[in-house]
Amino acid sequence: MTRHSLVIVGAGPRGAGLIERIAANAPELHDGSGLDIHLVDPHAPGAGRIWREAQSPLLWMNSHAEDVTMFTDETVDMAGPVRPGPTLHEWAGIDGTTFADRQLQGGYLRWVHEQAVAALPPSVRVHHHPRRALRVSGSREGRQQVWLEGRPAPLLADLVVLALGHLDAELDDEQGSLATYAAEHGLAHLPPDFTADSDLSALMPGSHVIVRGFGLAFVDLMVLLTEGRGGRYEGDTYVPSGREPVLYVGSRRGVPYHSKIGYDWTGERPPLPRFFGPAEVDELLARPAGFDFRRDVWPLVEKELGFAHYHRLFTVHGERTTMSWADFEEKYAVGDRTDVEALVEAAVPDPADRLDLGALDRPLEGVRYGSFEELQEGLRGYVEQDLSRRHDPSYSQDLSVFLGLLSVYGQLVRLGGTGPWWHGFFSYLASGPPGPRLRQLQALSRAGVVRFLGADVSVEAQDGVFRATSASLPGVFVETRALVEARLPEPTVGRARDALLRELREDGAAETPDGLLRVDPGDGRILDLAGRPHPRRFALGPFTDARTSGAFTRPRTGGPAFRQNDATARAALGFLAALAGRAAA
Known about the structure:
Blueprint: E1 4-9, H1 13-29, E2 35-40, H2 88-92, H3 102-118, E3 124-129, E4 133-137, E5 144-148, E6 155-157, E7 159-162, H4 173-185, E8 188-190, E9 208-212, H5 216-225, E10 232-234, E11 237-239, E12 246-250, H6 278-285, H7 293-316, H8 325-334, H9 337-347, H10 357-361, H11 372-390, H12 397-415, H13 420-430, H14 435-446, E13 450-454, E14 458-462, E15 465-469, E16 477-480, E17 482-485, H15 499-506, E18 525-527, E19 533-539, H16 560-584
Parallel strand pairs: 1-2, 1-7, 2-3, 7-19, 8-17, 9-12, 9-17, 12-13
Antiparallel strand pairs: 4-5, 5-6, 10-11, 14-15, 15-16, 18-19
Helix pairs in contact: 1-3, 1-16, 6-12, 7-12, 11-14
């Protein structure tokens, strides 16, 4: 009997999640015929590259262990069955509020993969190929050929799923110019990269380094260059080892990502979605002329997040409002933006209780400091206020907005092509570092190891050095012989170092204007330039226009990635069953 073949390129958490969904749906959709699943990834299945167990134990996850799961629950809107399983903290037997290190998460993901493989029917076999996939060839109607590095013959596949995760990228024009200048003048330049893979040896002890980027990549860099070089914390004081460089850090916003919220949810959840749900998405998708994110989508998102915020404020902290929730909700529902602003001003006396997404996004907009030291004090004060608020349950409307962000993301996945700004905004508000990391940042600032540059940082290479300026401190610049771009590469198909993606592009796969691979939002099939879904090729992950907030998620929050995995698994099993039926006939 002919055995069918499914090739999954990328064996990290997305690949593991797909196998889990294949196993869950197999009792309904698999016909019992032979199936070989080939996992192609140079890294170990489950953890993949990003979550591999062989990395520094100093690097943490940025979520509580109780907020990390790879298993579905009844909140996931999917056709397949729910197969519950333990969260990270339940599996590891650790306190749920622990920020586990990534080595432990890698072990959890390896176990999830092993459990998923064990749950497959006996006729399904899984093979791991520790190599890189170079290209996919084959007609739309026939079997595909997946060519691997160092292997003369291709893997033959009835279906191919790309689950590549975060991608390395060729340098863009700006980064290429900076790299060339650095090479010509003996400077150190580290372009965007996954920090755990960066060679930091060029950042010498005591040297001054400009760091552009203030998100999670910066936090990893901060850890590896301080504790990773022998420094230590004594309470709120950092004791240097003498091997640290001095980091001058700034970004577009000029502030770090918001601290993870440090308290648990209690009481009623906001009834979401309310203003941005499936009906609104259907209407947007049905527009013949398409939609614009800022004009058509963002007002709905803004109203949804405002609803989540004020629902919590009025129903739990009503003593800080001047009207009943019923009256406020009635007026909020029908008001336009101007009406809502007036309503909030009248009903919520304290500006600290109002939701201002613009101010949240750009907290240093228009703020100017008179000296470098004033800037340091100002930024330390900002971080302290953020830490205080994010750990104070009297501001639990912030946690309600977090739930609103998750709800919104679940809807935006269906739209695709929303642009990179939204993903960055989401990460800044909802996916920031653990509170203890910002405490460490404060200690490093006081010790002079980290120095803040402010907002709208620009970097030039001239006179044999890198020179950084910012809008927060007009007329002042910093010169160094080292520059680190502390952020992941943009996941664009055109600049991906992954040869397979470049080949797909040349083969006619469609891209969004932002360079993401276009896929069918229903099941992840790759679209061509005419908008036709490829019958045998699928793609899941951050390089697609159906990107989600992550391959794993917080329990009971809908899990958009799980929904996608389920749809792709069911489409794949249905296709293979149809093949088997035709062969039998």
